[in-house]
Amino acid sequence: MQTVDEILRIKKVKITAVRTVVLRHLLSQEKAQSLKDIENALVHTDRSSIFRTLKTFEENKVIHSIEDGSGMVKYAVCAKGCNCEPKDLHYHFYCNNCNKTFCLFDVPFQNIELPENFKIQQANMVIKGLCSDCNH
Amino acid sequence: MQTVDEILRIKKVKITAVRTVVLRHLLSQEKAQSLKDIENALVHTDRSSIFRTLKTFEENKVIHSIEDGSGMVKYAVCAKGCNCEPKDLHYHFYCNNCNKTFCLFDVPFQNIELPENFKIQQANMVIKGLCSDCNH
DNA sequence: CTTTTGCTGCAACTTAATTGCAAAGATTAA
DNA sequence: TTAATCTTTGCAATTAAGTTGCAGCAAAAG
Known about the structure:
Two copies of one chain form a homodimer.
Chain A: H1 4-10, H2 17-28, E1 33-34, H3 35-41, H4 47-59, E2 63-67, E3 73-77, E4 91-95, E5 101-104, E6 119-130
Chain A binds a DNA duplex through helix 2 and helix 4.
């Protein structure tokens, strides 16, 4: 696993205190985090600073955002080599029971045949149901 | 095309004035509508009434909601026979240029091989890019 | 060392979604 | 038919997430 500093250096994002703690937090979580999740975890860090940090991370493809239908945008660290292009797309899974949102990196993303003259640029794919921990 | 009253009768939603105008509006639009879109179109109808109408429609599977990343939830009328089950799922397309959200009923929805013991219940699939009108 | 640029924290604001409540309307029971 | 009950509606107020302006501070550039 890459370190926080390595990731920021590779993505050309200046290393700062806030960015370090936010990225460290995101890396330490198995599920995607909302702004509120991060805010709650990092009680000494200001909300707007976290917010701007997330925007910076997203612009520089350190993280990607997921709209899972919970009403809050969630963020997850991009996989190594990800450029947030169509080829890097993956499904997300939202558990209706435990409310966790995961990246399904292992589920192949099929090529979708769009109507004539439509062009894909990004996608937000969220499958909802029960995760293995909650499916009994 | 089914009439507004037919749809409501089939879905066992009592016919009222607000429900009729909201559903008629949704049926008349080619793109999915946000609460604000509907509010702007139906100037004489109260926002909270439209809001509660949409909730009622969604519970009774008259419409389905789509989170397209615009920050506003969009709503579209379910296809005839839809039960909002996995088999009824379809992709949505959000145009980054004209901001319209369409249901792609004609794009086949492939079966997704989920990890062991995960169960799909619903999905929110949004492909983003340029629609045929905007892709030049 | 001085200037410039960018980051941070605080407070305030915007926008969308949601709720409480009372009045109006529809339905059921007597 | 009338009374009682339940549902829907409109208005006002609130909640919650996201976003911005600004001043102070720190890092980088000259």
